[in-house]
Specification:
7 strands, globular
Length: about 170
């Protein structure tokens, strides 16, 4: 009887426990967030967002929202992040909200956002944003809120943004 109970326990550990662990967050999302942290000088962020790169579930990492095992929001306003947003950031393709006010990113990460087909809210400003708003943002048809500004944002507003018929005003 003990052997059968031990075998059942081992079976649980080998089959059920890893599934529970994997259910915490999509692996690509987790790796993209770690890249983000490392590339933006996370150890020296102005505001210390708790639990990043710890054993805590990603849903408990400060500034991150998770639903159905996917990252759906990143809220890093006023944190004075410095560095480059890595290309792996585009892997966060379930993103619904991005708030990046008052940071100092060095690279043009705006094209990565075109991968976020379900995004509803983008608020990026008061930071270094080289180049124009990508025309590919015209495909983000679920977008309801858009605020993008900065001293280095340049170029024309793409006509494709006319496709964003769900945008609402703040009034």
């Amino acid at each position: 009887m003990r052997i059968k109970a031990l075998l059942t326990f081992i079976q649980f550990i080998l089959i059920i426990a890893p599934l529970k662990t994997r259910a915490q967050i999509n692996l690509r999302d987790s790796l993209a967030l770690v890249d983000f942290y490392d590339s933006t000088n996370g150890d020296n962020w102005y505001s210390n967002y708790n639990n990043w790169k710890t054993s805590a579930p990603v849903s408990q990492w400060g500034g991150i929202s998770v639903r159905n095992n996917r990252v759906i929001g990143i809220y890093m306003q006023g944190n004075h992040l410095i560095g480059n947003i890595p290309a792996s950031f585009a892997n966060l393709d379930s993103m619904k909200s991005i708030y990046f006010l008052d940071n100092n990113f060095r690279n043009d990460f705006l094209p990565y956002i075109a991968n976020f087909k379900d995004i509803k809210s983008i608020d990026i400003g008061e930071q270094f944003l080289p180049g124009p708003i990508p025309s590919s943002w015209g495909n983000l048809t679920k977008l309801t809120y858009l605020r993008v500004y900065g001293p280095n944002l340049a170029g024309p507003i793409p006509s494709s943004l006319g496709n964003l018929t769900n945008l609402k005003t703040n009034r």
